[in-house]
Amino acid sequence: MTTARKLTMAQAISEAIGQEMERDPKVFAMGEDIARYGGIFGATGGLLERFGKERIMDTPISESAFIGAATGAAAEGMRPIAELMFVDFFGVCMDQIYNHLAKNTYMSGGKVRLPVVLMTAIGGGYNDAAQHSQCLYGLFAHVPGLKIVVPSNAYDAKGLMIQAIRDDNPVMYFFHKGIMGLPWMAYYEGSSNEVPQEAYTVPFGQARIAREGKDVTIVALSQMVQKALLAAAELEKEGIGTEVVDLRTLVPLDVEAVVRSVKKTGRLLVADEDYLNFGLTGEIAALIAERLDQISLKSPIRRLGVPGVPIPYSRPLEQFIIPQVKSIADACRGMMRGKVAQPA
Amino acid sequence: MEPSAEKLMWMYETMLLIREYEETMANVYLEGKLPPNIQKGLAFDIGSGPVPGEMHLAAGQEPVAVGVCAHLRKEDTVVGTHRPHHFAIAKGVPVDAMTAEMFGKATGLGHGKGGHMHLFDPEHKFSCSGIVGASLPPACGAALAAKKMGKDWVAVAFFGEGAANQGTFHEALNLAALWSLPAIFVCEDNKYAISVEKSESTAIHSDADRAAAYGIPGVAVAKNDALEVYEAAGEAVARARKGGGPTLIEVKTDRYMGHFQGDAEVYRPKGEVGELRKNDPIPSLGKHLRARGILDDGKDAAIREKVHGLVQKSYEFARQSAYPEPREALQHVFV
Ligand SMILES: Cc1ncc(C[n+]2csc(CCOP(=O)(O)OP(=O)(O)O)c2C)c(N)n1
Ligand SMILES: [Mg+2]
Fold first, then answer.
1. Is the CB of residue A299 less than 8 Å from the CB of residue A267?
2. How do the domains of chain B map onto residue ranges?
């Protein structure tokens, strides 16, 4: 019998980690302020009390050392979870991530297994400025060798975390601060939902149709899914049917789900909080462009993302550069009026 | 080395200014962040109010900033941390523009683009960063530039005891020692890195001991006292100006507030801050000034009034200033 309760995403993540730690003694967690504090964003809340400090380990502020140590421990058969407090801090430890964690399996001809989960907080919207507000999953998806998980709600967060811990490959798990359901930060309430008590998995590479619609497809992930759903509700009042595709994972990517939806609607908006240039939005647009022999578009593809600027501190500036519910809805309205060129 | 009367007065006044600045910020920061005017169910909303985002205050840590900066000139460089206000004030960064920056206003140091952890004032040669351990390498660079240009300028990197476990600390110390750079590395040991006590993060007791690994002087200042910091920094700055290379200074200091504002401080024993405040470095410096005969009740009151006026004026300036236009977000990526 399943018993579901409404959980925040933070609660769902820590529940997933706790259940996997109970199931497998090889699972342990390392990171800054993850023990007594329960993680700055609550992803390890309550776990120290249950598992003790041998398995829920506060680390020094030495990201290269402990993330590199996760790789080393995994190679010996452990299943470490490491938390990089904010993704923005990858700069101090990227070598351990992209030259080692991401490549050792390949360079060993598949002999080295690295079941590491590297989880990290992403996103802006609360004025934490350029070094604490980025998303950057596109950057990590660009590098071969890392599975990239970016949940939008508590149900997915739990299932994807369990899947991540059980995966024998490195998985980066990105949680957006503005959907964690923290008592100290405004969040999109659609991200807190019914979560079964029991352990379950959500497979990688399977997008979720968060809402069905016939006119426009919005491809999004993480907090942007919640924004897209709010935009879709607005558009419905105007008779525009919006389909929201929640990618859930970037690597592997569910190309078919995107293609299927765009075939149906003929209009694609990719809405993203990561940088616009050279990232997710361009990737998705290209996948559709490459299939224009199978797909007929009614309007040019649109992309929304953070234009090529660091995240500014000041509220009006930050609100301007991060796509909002209104800019998503406006983009869809524009696409309903859009036209594609006809062959001469 | 006893400071001159003028230096002593500057240190006292600057410590009072920092304290009042931080205490005022603690109050202003809360504006708009508490129920009922925030999302239902929240206890606090970090993104609301006139000063949103994270806020790290340095009340209690004034001796580190003033004891070091008392030796600096305008041409010397200071690189601070995510907890930067005391360093900025002691280096002479104008409080009006600094406050306006934290209000996100166009009159701010960075036109509202940087915010509290990213204050840049090239005129007063001050900068800081929200990345732990990031202050040391650029201070090496400033010191290297001074050396190449034949100036007797020095560069100071401030950082927390938590940052001393970051790779940049070790790389920078070796570089500075190898190239004999005019750099002073000042570690604020306030016992905590967010919730993690130093004893839980660091294999040794005193970070000053780490200087030995790079063959440079390491000085431990055991007391949160402006005069003791002044003494240690004086030697280090004089040595650096004369081409004698870098120094590592560790100061045992006290953080009176949370790691950031809104921190419930579940990791801190109840009553700890009360105990720490009994050794408040400001009245103790005041006592010293009185014993020297350079401070009395009248002068004390006048200084406090002046400081109060400065702080009030800076917050007023910030409130009255206009926000930048949204489109300005697109400027300044490049010059
Ligand atoms: C590279 C990096 N890792 C982690 C953080 C998150 N963080 C911000 S402040 C802080 C603690 C810093 O402690 P310490 O250096 O002692 O300075 P204090 O806050 O005590 O002044 C941490 C872990 C960060 N900003 N940058
Ligand atoms: Mg500290």
1. yes
2. 5-322
Spatial distance between the Cα atoms of B205 and B215, rounded to a whole number of angstroms: 19
From B6, B144, B117, B4, select the one nearest B51 (Cα to Cα).
Answer: B117
Q: How many angstroms separate the CA atoms of B66 and B76, rounded?
A: 14
The DSSP call for residue A314 is S
Q: Please name every residue paired with A80 in a beta bridge, in sequence order, or none if there are none.
A: A28
Nearest Cα residue in chain B from A89:
B131
Architecture field, domain A4-196: 3-Layer(aba) Sandwich (3.40)
CA-to-CA distance for A41 and A31, rounded, in angstroms? Answer: 12
**SS3 state of residue A268:** strand
For residue A314, the chain B residues in CB contact (below 8 A) are 104-105, 108, 111-113, 115, 323-324
Over range B286-310, report the average pLDDT: 98
| Residue A54 predicted with pLDDT over 90 | yes
Residue A2's pLDDT band (cuts 50, 70, 90): confident
Domain boundaries, chain A: 4-196, 208-336
Instruction: Answer yes or no: A142 catalytic.
Output: no
Which band of pLDDT confidence, cut at 50, 70 and 90, is reported for residue B13?
A: very high
Residue nearest to atom 12 of ligand 1 (CA): B193
- Contact residues on chain B for A321, CB-CB shorter than 8 A: 329-330
What per-residue confidence (pLDDT) applies to B149? Answer: 98
Q: What pLDDT score was predicted for residue B1?
A: 77
3-state secondary structure of B131: coil
Q: 10 Å Cβ neighbour count for A63?
A: 28
Distance between alpha carbon A324 and the CA centroid of its chain, in Å?
17
Determine whether the interchain pair A128/B112 forms a contact, defined as Cβ–Cβ distance below 8 Å.
no
pLDDT for residue A1:
57
The shortest CB-CB distance from B329 to any of A63, A132, A317 is to A317
Residue B166 structure tokens: 């970051």
At the top level of CATH, the class of B5-322 is alpha beta
Its ipTM equals 0.97
Domain A208-336 has CATH 3.40.640.10: no
Residue A186 Cα to ligand 2 middle (Å): 28
| Gap from B2 CA to chain A (nearest CA, Å) | 37
Q: How far is the CA of B81 from the centre of ligand 1 (A)?
A: 9
Residue with tokens 């005129």: B123
Helices (H), B70-135: 85-91, 95-102
Pocket test for ligand 1, best of B55, B82, B256 (most atoms within 8 A of CB): B82
Q: Do B41 and A183 touch (CB under 8 A)?
A: yes
Residues from chain B that touch A131, judged by Cβ atoms under 8 A, are 117-118, 129-131
Confirm if A122 and A87 have CB atoms less than 8 A apart: yes
Of B38, B130, B325, the CB nearest to A132: B130
